[in-house]
Design a protein that fits this description.
The chain has 525 residues and is an all-alpha fold. The protein folds into two domains: 13-391 and 401-443, Up-down Bundle (Na+/H+ antiporter like fold), CATH 1.20.1530.20; 474-524, no CATH class. The protein is 67% helix and 2% strand. The protein has 23 helices and two strands. It has helices at residues 10-27, 29-35, 40-51, 69-94, 99-102, 104-130, 136-145, 151-158, 161-166, 169-184, 186-198, 201-240, 246-267, 271-282, 287-291, 297-316, 331-344, 347-353, 363-371, 377-389, 402-443, 474-484, 510-518, and strands spanning 496-499, 505-508. The chain has a two-stranded antiparallel sheet with strand order 1-2. The radius of gyration is 35 Å and the shape is globular. It holds the Pfam family Na_H_Exchanger. Belongs to the fungal Na(+)/H(+) exchanger family.
Length: 525
């Protein structure tokens, strides 16, 4: 009988790698998060690159779909969709009660001004100019994928020890709400661009208004509000009658998000907006937050899903496509796009409009809000969704066919920007903290005012004992004083010399001299 106990498959290797990362990360999670200010996203991405096809080649997500690239795209889309739905639902639940209603003005201005500016500027000034093979409308499709802020990476800024100490609470909340809402509102920007590529301008505007806005967006928001409000009401009834225990109520955190996403997909509406508004309506009165305040189940689930997703993204990165002359892509073009994108995508519109945004109080908060707009899971999901709507080329890719050219070039551009956004935004807080410490050490470093060498300041010198003074009488000292200062007898000199109990001369002020004259010390008798 032939004995071979090893059953090595791609799925089993993936399980082992994912579990190993979570185990070793959680062992040092306190140091990594609270001391180094690094979340799991950047570590998981680097780990995914290390085990991916361009590292040790242990896990290759692009081989999971066989030879069909569309199956790989579908896997990528579903993985990122589930993680986004859970993240958006979590942000909606954790917001204070009635937050969207009380802060609608700040949220509306941030979404409209920031997303519209980023979509147009990135599409026209960056993608269209720096990628010669893409025409104007296809450039807007790529820009729509890079418009939304990633809620998973933004959670690292809005939460954690550093944010609690240095970021005001009102700013953390508005950034979290904006990062969740603009992922769902990326659908209108994506579909108007796709409709302009696939249809005539008249048909594109008609379908965009009727299908995207009236049905997908509005019905998605309505569905999320209905599900969240309905199950909040049902949970209150079950809790009053003791039909549900504490652990089951916490499980609603994940179950309701997945259920809302599933029904939204069945109806063909915006599942991300549905998940976010379901979480908002579910905790509208704050009762669910109070009931689950002491539980950590939701944070554990989020960490597991987020780690798995970023490991997947790291292994999925198409490094070979970053330089492709057929797609008019090169590394220097992508580097310039990334740098300019980080500088002009969010910072200028927020700096211009922050005075009319109630939740952004000053220039520093506006600059912080403009910088921390990372691109990550949301950008990968929107790009996968765009590819699923476009035809793919079966042979040689040509710029004459803009639809297939766009389908082939959209993910390399998005992947490069996402990779550097994860690194830059993930390392921003550690570098900022390190620079402050270096400046503090530089400003407090001791300097010698004398001409002696600097190293002499670091030597400890033991002080010598005082030399003993000869025992002299107080009359002799007083006579010496009178001879040296003739006007001391008139009380004009502010100082006098007395003797201590040990017989040593001591200088005292005029007040102490007056007190000693009223009550003579034993040494002078």
């Amino acid at each position: 009988m032939y004995f071979w106990p090893f059953d090595i498959t791609t799925v089993h290797i993936t399980y082992a790698c994912l579990g190993s990362f979570v185990v070793f990360f959680t062992l040092f999670s306190l140091v990594i998060r609270e001391k180094l200010y690094l979340g799991e996203a950047i570590w998981a991405t680097v780990f995914g690159i290390a085990i991916g096809p361009y590292g040790t080649n242990i896990v290759d997500p692009r081989s999971w779909g066989g030879d069909d690239p569309m199956q790989v795209n579908d896997i990528t889309m579903e993985v990122t969709r589930v993680v986004l739905a859970l993240g958006l639902f979590a942000i909606g639940v954790e917001l204070p009660k009635s937050y969207i209603l009380r802060h609608w003005r700040s949220l509306t201005i941030l979404l409209l001004v920031g997303m519209t500016w980023g979509w147009l500027i990135c599409g026209v000034a960056l993608i269209y100019v720096l990628v010669p093979g893409l025409q104007f409308y296809p450039s807007l499709v790529v820009s729509a994928c890079l418009t939304p802020t990633d809620p998973i990476l933004a959670a690292a800024v809005c939460g954690g020890k550093y944010a609690e100490k240095h970021v005001p609470l009102h700013l953390r909340r508005i950034l979290a709400a904006e990062s969740a809402a603009n992922d769902g509102l990326a659908f209108p920007f994506l579909y108007i661009s796709l409709y302009l590529v696939l249809e005539s301008p008249g048909e594109a505007v008609r379908d965009w208004f009727l299908i995207t806005w009236l049905y997908e967006v509005c019905v998605g928001i309505f569905l999320g509000c209905v599900f969240g409000g309905l199950f909040r009401f049902l949970m209150k009834i079950c809790e009053k009658r003791d039909f549900i225990d504490r652990s089951s109520s916490v499980a609603q955190y994940v179950a309701l998000a997945v259920m809302t996403m599933g029904f939204a997909l069945l109806l063909g509406v915006d599942e991300l907006l549905a998940a976010f508004f379901a979480g908002t309506a579910f905790s509208w009165d704050g009762a669910f937050n109070e009931a689950t305040e002491d539980t950590s189940f939701s944070s554990v689930i989020e960490m597991l899903f987020d780690s798995a997703c970023f490991i997947f993204i790291g292994a999925w990165m198409p490094f070979a496509s970053f330089y492709d002359p057929n797609l008019t892509l090169s590394v220097w073009r992508l580097v310039v796009i990334t740098i300019l994108l980080l500088l002009v995508r969010r910072i200028p519109p927020i700096l211009i409009s922050y005075k009319i945004i109630p939740d952004i109080k000053n220039f520093k908060e506006a600059l912080f809000s403009g910088h921390f707009g990372p691109m990550g899971v949301g950008a990968v999901f929107i790009s996968s969704l765009a590819v699923s709507k476009l035809p793919t080329a079966s042979g040689t890719i040509s710029a004459d066919d803009q639809q297939t050219f766009l389908a082939a070039s959209i993910q390399p551009i998005v992947a490069f920007v996402v990779l550097w956004s994860i690194l830059i935004h993930g390392l921003s807080i550690p570098f900022w903290t390190l620079s402050k410490r270096v400046n503090t050490l530089t400003s407090t470093w001791p300097r010698s005012p004398s001409l002696q060498p600097e190293w002499l300041n670091q030597i400890r010198v033991r002080p010598l004992p005082p030399l003993p003074l000869p025992e002299i009488s107080s009359l002799a000292v007083l006579a010496l004083h009178i001879d040296r200062y003739p006007h001391i007898s008139n009380g004009e000199h502010p100082f006098s010399l007395t003797l201590s109990a040990r017989g040593r001369p001591r200088s005292t002020s005029s007040r102490s001299g007056q007190r000693s004259s009223q009550k003579p010390s034993p040494a002078g008798t």
